[in-house]
């Protein structure tokens, strides 16, 4: 860190510490997330109107307004540069009954404060709803999805601090499976399957097993009703603790609980059979979930067969490096071959590697567009060397009004790493920068 930058860093940290002291009484009776508290300190210190502070707030808004799309489970390793305020937004879908599990790690540990907060996008033009934030000591966050939808995880470091991070986003069921794991069972019929020659749709899942296999409580709660009906035969209704839905167990051979009985997760409620309209089918449990609005698909609530995120095979040594594409490539909004196309890039376009996931890189173009490209298509090596005929200004960015880093004299040898519009990104002695063609 240069003396000038160290001085600026020291001044900002001092101002933020002073702001934290004066703002502590104002926040005495309000609970803020770590990101909100830090943003308030920046504002109270008068730094929001500075170029650095404004860039931090702009990055935070961009991560929510223009997140990139990922599919769960997802794992990414990336890099935040200390000298440039930045943030990352990850948009994904999740269903009611699932639990979103988020784990973040950062290096160097203890010297790199990273904020992680989870939002749900609202339909229409409404602002996103803040659902929670990761604890800044454990960097973990869990959220039980109460409504199908799209969610955004925002990651953002504090000012003038940077480093590597790894984020993992997975899902898990919020209920236990209603048949003990040690017994042999399988799901043979799913939500929405046709019934009665298409006259109705299946409102649950069917779990097949041997006759009189135990069926168990999928949560703590109480038995709201034990009964008999034409469709379900011997049935049990269970009310999970603190939930607004009811669990329905049908086609039982035996009911081993009574109405009003308190039960714990894993307690045996009855034995699997084929009563009701299942008398001519193999033994199975019909498991359903009902709310006042009707039936819900139980699968997200109980599905334990969830895959792990793909191993990151893209070379993380290229993080924060400027690279070029060795061939024409597609920049996509998600790390998948069928991801939405952002643009097609001709060969040898310059981009910066922000993060790696699976076999993909998340990259930043010189025009600030972000997206994903396949890692095998990129290289950090120059693709040709030339001798320039006339002295040329080496620019910090591909823009004629930007700062000049140095002047390359006529006859100098340079190596070209890539291009963007009418500019080449070159290496000259110890400098990397842009020259006008």
From TrEMBL:
<dbReference type="InterPro" id="IPR003646">
    <property type="entry name" value="SH3-like_bac-type"/>
</dbReference>
<dbReference type="Pfam" id="PF08239">
    <property type="entry name" value="SH3_3"/>
</dbReference>
<protein>
    <submittedName>
        <fullName>M23 family metallopeptidase</fullName>
    </submittedName>
</protein>
<feature type="domain" description="SH3b">
    <location>
        <begin position="329"/>
        <end position="379"/>
    </location>
</feature>
<dbReference type="Pfam" id="PF01551">
    <property type="entry name" value="Peptidase_M23"/>
</dbReference>
<dbReference type="InterPro" id="IPR050570">
    <property type="entry name" value="Cell_wall_metabolism_enzyme"/>
</dbReference>
<dbReference type="InterPro" id="IPR016047">
    <property type="entry name" value="M23ase_b-sheet_dom"/>
</dbReference>
<feature type="domain" description="M23ase beta-sheet core">
    <location>
        <begin position="201"/>
        <end position="298"/>
    </location>
</feature>
<dbReference type="InterPro" id="IPR011055">
    <property type="entry name" value="Dup_hybrid_motif"/>
</dbReference>
<dbReference type="GO" id="GO:0004222">
    <property type="term" value="F:metalloendopeptidase activity"/>
</dbReference>
